[in-house]
Design goal:
about 15% strand, seven-stranded mixed beta sheet, 26 strands, tt1808, chain A, about 950 residues, Rossmann fold, alpha/beta
Length: about 950
């Protein structure tokens, strides 16, 4: 067993013991040691399993252990195989063990094989033996019962199997109590969500609509009909808990008229002691957090405050977290929830969280994710981040329609993707939490705003920081590809510009998800692209070459690496998911898509159906083509701390990323607000550095690349080695370099004069990163400029055919109705060549794309063959109401011709029909069919033997009927 696997086993052993299991080796089996035994390395028919779980001497489950980092979904089948291959000497109640776990000691997945659709779910810890014994003795599972809830009734007397629910405060009618329509809809939709095995659901109900009453109603149904053992009802503060308890006290059961609390125990948790027989527990989320952390009691004031306010009391100080402590001084407190044996993960089957837009952040999120329970959120004002937390499962208003832009097939076009955030802006309320993530280790943290942040669309600079916004943009881009690049089997070579390395990582991850592809499909190309397989950084030039030449790599994501001076000629799409500050730089970035290449070169990397590259597409997802170009970016990390306190924290030695990044953000904002005279005062007080210098120094001290390079240079002075053999710095080396750089950057704030001056100069205008928003697609479309260019090209084409009608034979034929002569392949080829040679390079693809942009409602299909020039000319001249491929026109006319012939009493034999279809296809391919064409294909003789002298008349008739 390798060291990582042994470490995983040690962690699993510890977790099992904490959950009440006696962990034993197979040969040391002692069934009397405990009710639940976790037996290691038990030989099964399919091989030894890592852990066999026995309760009361009977096997009930298995655990497959893997080293940390193993994708557990890939080993689920292995666990399932163990469950059905028990040795003969073990007696079981069923042919297969019901409870299946996969675990690395860090992550654990669990599924009950008896569920209607067994599906793995993450659990914080292993279930206790008595819990598995209770579940095993049940005739069915909770998820099975949720699929069989009786129909939800609206009124009494409808012949339903379940009586109606009490009235939601609107009086009683003669037929019995009824509920409001919104309450009925909420409960019906929620139960449909349960039946679909959705673990999270969000109910939005306006204030005064009775959401608590609704919750009591569905909780009653969950207990009565689904057999829920215990429900946790989380509230924001203690007084709301009292009100909620009052709702349960007053709730009249529809079955027999008794009150809810006369039948089921309901506990309002006012101490850190849980009533074991309570079917419903009402508590503040901060109290449950306190219990999980093993605290004897919650500070009294914390239960009275809202969750937002209480988090400040319960959050350890930097010193308590161990920041800045001396050597040998351990951290005293942790903000993380750990397993509490007195409060196992299966304590509750369902958690209802009222005012859930306040309870899914920072400390409190751990509480919700600790329990192996379905989550139901209640709120009157859901933030978009709240909707995201509940997996977008807004059961009262689920789903959003998204528009897909018109196809682009011509020229240099801007494809604009507009979202709700970039168009309308938004508001982040005071006290809300926003997500912050370390660039060094990509760990996320939650920080609180100290004032409301209102912003308009024009105020957004680099707003693409929300994963759902990235997903919305990429989904819109993917959906648009069939129209942007019709008849393509492969995604066009696409370059996405991200705002920083961390953003690029997110885009790569979500692009693979949206397109349903693997690692080779989308990769990041930056100055430091790490190859996990070789454990080395890949050279940028090698990755660029792979992107240029590999058919597998379709999307590259970069920050600056490919922004300028890089030749990737097959590139056909540029996706801007970052704003650009310099107009010159923006033009250079656009230049990545301008290069041309032959059809052969394009097809070598993009497939045979990529006929030609005659334009590229800019996909503008952030308004980069419209917005002003500035250098600022949102960096606020400590919005709940005042500017004065932030500077003092830094002076007292606080050096975490949040503090330094927030201070840099506020300095940058302040620098833009002050005048030259004030800047001079700053320089005098600081001894030289400007606000911009200070902000730059702070950000540099946080830059992972700068920190690593500093550590390398430090190593080189201590242990000089050749560059090729230079050892990578350790984590300790990196931490030391970070501390040194941070100390240098923070030095100006040691001076009281500097702090006092900056506080006086500070303006109210703050900048934060808005992570509360789940974005919604508003529109995806070509830019107005692209539409105008399309209309201009159409006008040019119309003028061209009018002007050159006398000299181009194909146009002479197409202008005359009925045709006075037959249209030939040579005529169409000549017309195609002349259009391509025109200054506007009027290719068939560009012309068709122009019409798609200008009159999308009159386009039916995409161009595929050169004979579509016939359709283009006819549509331009107004001879046809819609623009459709020539093939569609011919096929439709052919079917009508056959019907007409049949009406005349002419019925063709099967052999004749086969030759008619060959001649029809020849018309589709070249515009007509004649004797020479059949002769060239060695088909004239066989066709003549079938039709005889009628052949010539049939050909002439087809040429007229199918083309005209």
């Amino acid at each position: 067993m390798t060291a990582p696997e042994a470490l995983a086993r040690q962690q699993i052993d510890t977790q099992l013991a904490a959950s009440g299991w006696a962990v034993q080796d197979y040969r040391q089996f002692n069934p009397s040691a405990a009710r639940g035994i976790a037996l290691r390395e038990v030989p099964l028919k399919s091989g030894p399993c890592d852990y066999l779980l026995l309760v009361d001497r009977k096997p009930v489950g298995v655990i497959e252990a893997k080293k940390t980092g193993t994708p557990l979904s890939t080993v689920a089948q292995q666990t399932a195989d163990y469950a059905v291959n028990l040795p003969d000497f073990l007696t079981t109640d069923s042919a297969s063990l019901p409870f299946l776990y996969e675990s690395t000691g860090v992550e654990t997945l669990f599924r009950d094989a008896r569920d209607p659709e067994p599906k793995s779910r993450r659990v914080f810890a292993f279930h206790r033996p008595e819990t598995l014994a209770e579940w095993a003795s049940a005739t069915d599972t909770l998820r099975a019962r949720l699929r069989r809830l009786p129909p939800f009734p609206a009124t009494r007397g409808e012949g339903r199997s379940f009586p109606p629910l009490p009235l939601a405060g609107e009086g009683r009618g003669e037929g019995g109590p009824t509920m409001r329509a919104c309450q009925i809809e909420a409960i019906a939709n929620l139960e449909a969500s349960f039946a679909a095995d959705r673990p999270r659901a969000l109910i939005q109900m306006a204030t005064g609509a009775g959401k608590t009453f609704t919750a009591v109603s569905f909780i009653y149904r969950l207990i009565k009909h689904a057999g829920a053992r215990r429900v946790l009802f989380l509230v924001d503060r203690s007084n709301l808990g009292e009100q909620t308890k009052g709702e349960f006290d007053q709730y009249v059961l529809p079955d027999d008229g008794r009150k809810f609390t006369q039948v089921y125990n309901v506990q309002h948790l006012t101490s850190n002691s849980l009533d074991s027989v309570a079917r419903v527990t009402v508590a503040t989320i901060q109290r449950v957090y306190s219990i999980l952390r093993g605290e004897a009691e919650l500070p009294e004031e914390a239960d009275e405050l809202s969750g937002f306010e209480a988090s400040r009391i319960l959050t350890p100080s930097p010193r308590e977290r161990g920041e800045g402590r001396g050597e040998g001084q351990p951290a005293q407190r942790s903000v993380d929830v750990a397993y509490n044996p007195a409060f196992p993960v299966e304590t509750f089957d369902f958690i209802v969280t009222d005012e859930c837009h306040r309870s899914i952040y920072n400390l409190w999120r751990q509480v919700l994710e600790y329990f192996d329970a379905s989550l139901i959120g209640l709120t009157a004002t859901p933030s978009k981040q709240t909707i995201g937390f509940f997996d977008q499962n807004l059961v009262m208003e689920y789903g959003h329609d998204r528009a897909v832009a018109d196809g682009v097939n011509v020229g240099y076009d801007v494809y604009r993707i507009r979202t709700q955030v970039t168009e309308a802006g938004g508001k982040v309320e005071k006290g809300w939490y926003v997500d912050k993530r370390s660039k060094l280790d990509r760990k996320t943290r939650w920080e609180q705003l100290d004032e409301d942040l209102d912003y308009e669309g024009r105020d957004l600079d680099r707003s693409v920081v929300v994963k759902s916004q990235i997903r919305t943009v990429l989904k819109a881009f993917k959906d648009a590809l069939p129209e942007l690049f019709p008849n393509r089997a492969m995604t066009p070579k696409t370059l996405i510009f991200a705002k920083d390395d961390s953003h690029a990582e997110d885009i790569v991850e979500i692009a693979r998800e949206v397109f349903g592809k693997g690692n080779d499909f989308c990769q990041k190309i930056t100055y430091r692209s790490f190859d996990a397989a070789t454990r080395q950084y890949r050279k940028p030039k090698d990755m660029i070459a792979a992107f240029r030449n590999s058919p597998q790599m379709r999307i590259a994501v970069t920050v600056d690496m490919i922004a300028t001076g890089t030749d990737i000629r097959p590139l056909e799409c540029l996706v801007f998911m970052r704003d650009v500050k310099s107009r010159v730089y923006f033009e250079q970035m656009k230049g990545r898509g301008t290069r041309v290449l032959s059809s052969t070169e394009l097809q070598a990397v993009s497939g045979a159906d990529a006929k030609t590259k005659d334009r590229f597409v800019i996909v503008d997802a952030v308004g980069v083509c419209e917005s002003d170009k500035t250098d600022s970016r949102p960096l606020e990390k400590k919005p709940g701390v005042s500017f004065r306190d932030l500077m003092l924290q830094v002076a007292f030695g606080k050096r975490d990323e949040d503090a330094l990044s927030s201070l840099a953000s506020r300095l940058a904002r302040l620098d833009r607000d002050i005048d030259p005279a004030q800047r001079k005062r700053v320089a005098e007080a600081s001894g030289g550095p400007s606000l911009a210098d200070m902000a730059h120094a702070l950000l540099t001290a946080l830059d992972p690349d700068v920190i690593r390079d500093h550590a390398r240079r430090t190593l080189a002075t201590v242990r000089p080695e050749p560059v090729e053999g230079q050892a990578e710095p350790t984590e300790a080396d990196i931490a030391e370099s970070r501390a040194q750089l941070a100390s240098q950057a923070c030095a100006p704030f040691d001076a009281p004069a500097v702090r006092e001056l900056l506080e006086r100069l500070k303006k109210e205008n703050e900048q934060v990163i808005d992570t509360t928003t789940v974005d919604v697609l508003l529109k995806s479309e070509l830019s107005e400029e692209a539409r105008r260019e399309a209309e201009s090209l159409i006008q040019t084409f119309h003028a061209y055919i009018e002007q050159h009608r006398p000299e181009i034979e194909a146009l002479q034929v197409l202008y005359s109705r009925p045709y006075k002569q037959r249209l030939t392949e040579d005529m169409l080829k000549s017309l195609e060549d002349k259009l391509k040679a025109a200054p506007e390079r009027m290719t068939r693809e560009r012309l068709w794309g122009a019409y798609t942009k200008a009159v999308p409602g009159r386009i039916e299909g995409q161009t595929q063959r050169f004979t579509d020039l016939v359709s283009l000319v006819r549509f331009t001249l107004g001879q046809e109401p819609v623009l459709e491929p020539f093939e569609q026109h011919v096929l439709a006319r052919y079917e009508l011709w056959l019907v007409d012939k049949k009406a005349q009493g002419i019925v063709f034999t099967d052999e004749e029909r086969a030759w008619l279809e060959k001649m029809r296809d020849r018309v589709i391919a070249s515009g007509s069919v004649d004797r020479e064409a059949l002769k060239a294909g060695n088909e004239l003789g066989p066709a003549y033997r079938v039709f005889g002298e009628r052949l010539w008349a049939v050909m002439d008739e087809l040429n007229g009927v199918l083309v005209e």
